[in-house]
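Model it.
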Amino acid sequence: MMAMPIVPLVQIPLQRPLQMPLAEIGANGLPYAIPIHPNLVHLTLGLFIVAIGFDIVGVLFPLEKPVFKFLAIPATRTNLFDVGWYNMVAAAIVTFFTVAAGFYEILLADPPAEVTSPWGLGATSTMLWHGVGGVALLALMVAMTVWRGFQRYVWRQEKPRQVQWSYILAGLGIFALMFLHGTLGAHLAADFGVHISADRLLRSGVDANAIINQLGQ
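Modeled.
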């Protein structure tokens, strides 16, 4: 499978975010080739989903035990809860960097002012709500980690079921918030072309085919 070429740093006649020197800004509007925030977002999502998912499996373990036995999977309830705990801790830590990278890249964003999203929001409003939502999710992630830690080491340390049903329901609720918040991020990329090299090149009038041909030489 042929690897997709990375668009090099090129000078494009768009408004310079934060008045950075044009030579330092690439075709994606960033001083580096690949945006950091979207990659960390998926890492945050993966860790949180695994954390809640394994805790759900741990809670339902008495019902699932015959299935594990039939499939010859050497799973124990304690190990399932261990996975849930450590992934939740990792999710909280990674989310600090996810939010920080997001705010940095928002500051460098230069979206078109005349475009609106499918939700009827302009670029500025979408970035604002996405930023506020990111901070809110970070706070929720930290709160969930603290809550999970108290259950693991204090409240339910001696009990077979390490997590409360209310904790599981809260995690599922955060899934819904993540979906709404992620949709705002998708609007920034798909509708406003924030830090999308091809979109910015087309808006700037640069011949994208010429760039691709140069990469192929």
